[in-house]
């Protein structure tokens, strides 16, 4: 579209808090800046919610809950369907907005808008399939009725790395189930969520069902809402460290929780794998979102007989990737989200090199402006290297050779995380054997991308609790009620 401009898409966003269906400034009048990570420049200022604004947002969600729960499932689904259509229609503007605040290349932002919209289409369909049951009691004299009801007002917290999709993955099922919400996007990427709120209002979402808080004080604003007792659910996507803290807060009033936390995905390549497919999958699993994805391949384990060829071919592909501002044509490697992210990646690479890893390509920061780090391949990475146990969240592929299947599985499972694992092999028996033994909520079997709105996304171990998407995604926002019937 010729008519869209950077200044235009930023100007079009309402930058206030969205409470009770109205755009309002923060009660104390404060704002905070949103930066472009590719230049470090300020894009705009948005309202900086205080704890008092948080309470107003929760008041609005609580006030809207009873009426919203009584809106027909078909109507709730149709609101989501209209919002899906608006997202698709405005994908170009929304993609540009996302690239400006988050940095990922435009093509990836466009892909995320499509992915995000699909959650609304999926849950529009799920809204009318909330089931129940009728059964004869074992003693034959009574009957059991089982029904599902909305959990109630829900608190949603989303990260900066997928600013739109992490929102729709929670809002979609909450709307479908009949829950009202207070959502808090990450301070670094609030604009996509504000644009989404406007779209949902345009699609007919009643006042108070969705309330949006942007704030530079996430803990100060959200903790009182978690401890308030009126919200019945917290759905969080973010780091395991923050997730742990929020689980403790939720214990106070025994909130239902969904936790989509950090990952440390192993990527296993066996000698019998289709190497072309493995390289393609490795590029996707590593470089989607500039490596800033919970599903990013964090550790490559490659069988010794093919490790040199795999490393050479991956290096060729990585060093050919154009780096630059995400708005530029053809760019694949955009900036990382901020300076601390660049420092973290740099530190992890330096630590691996100190312990004996070799740099095949990259391995350096890039002079500013912007938070750039080169696409990097490391080989001979020892298992003691910090990046074997920590999320890299950047464009770095560490490769370690292995000899046996047992050794590969033991290395892959040697982590507190369990979100996703990738396996490349052409042997069907090995594929199933290894998939069953890997400790992860999701397996990419001969594919480097698992995310799909129609599939249950989520992790085990310290990668989280619950699932988003698929037929089970809506259950996270429903309570089961059993009615014992005397005949
Ligand atoms: P983060 O620091 O944990 O932040 C996530 C969200 O929590 C942000 O909105 C953040 O707001 C908020 N937050 C931080 N401290 C808080 C507190 N004390 N109370 C309430 N809210 C708080 O994570 P991130 O750096 O944004 O995101 C990257 C992490 O998310 C990675 O670990 C990644 O693996 C994980 N992730 C997981 C999935 C999944 O589905 N499993 C998907 C995407 C990302 P502010 O930033 O404004 O403080």
UniProtKB/TrEMBL annotation:
InterPro entries with a match to the protein in the record: Ald_DH/histidinol_DH, Ald_DH_C, Ald_DH_CS_GLU, Ald_DH_N, Aldehyde_DH_dom, Aldehyde_DH_Superfamily
Pfam families: Aldedh
Molecular function via GO: succinate-semialdehyde dehydrogenase (NAD+) activity
Annotated catalytic residues: 260
Record keywords, A-Z: Oxidoreductase
GO biological process, one term: gamma-aminobutyric acid catabolic process
Protein's UniProt keywords contain DNA repair: no
Domain of life: Bacteria
Domain Aldehyde dehydrogenase positions: 23-483
Family: Belongs to the aldehyde dehydrogenase family.
Protein name as catalogued: NAD-dependent succinate-semialdehyde dehydrogenase
